[in-house]
Amino acid sequence: MWLCLPCPEGFYCNATDNSIIEPKICPAGSKCTTGTGVQFGVLCPLGTFQPEIGRHECVSCPAGKFCGQVGISGVGTKKYATCLDGYWCKEGNSVGNPTFGTGEKCKIGFYCDAGAGFPRQCDPGMACDSVGMKKSDMKKCTIGYYCLGGTITPTPINISSDKGAICPAGYYCPE
Fold this sequence. Notes:
This protein is mostly beta strands. Helix content is 2%, strand content 21%.
């Protein structure tokens, strides 16, 4: 042969396994751009995965999940994991309990069950009075008070800041 061709996209060409003679397909959990010379391609970095073979890029871990190791394929033992109770995870997350950037602990007035891709406002009639709550942690609004969605205490006083209040004269608030 009178010239060497660059290894095509989705394949790797490495002398270790004779793939310099014939390109080998990039495995799941890796990416192979044009000219990849690393055996088995480049492992997908933290926060990403690649479930298919022969690909040139990795994809972001889905919202509510996290990809906490390199080379995740999304199948078998190389799967992404579910974000933890009390936390929400954006797409591309690499930890199950993020503190900033790619998610965080649920704030007061919200809850996050395992696998949450965003925080959910506390249900009407319930209160979410601490950070990191899951749905089963919600507290019933105290008798004599009403709680709107996102209420931050079971005994709200101020409708604008607490998202609820004491039942006014002429009304009642059943359990």
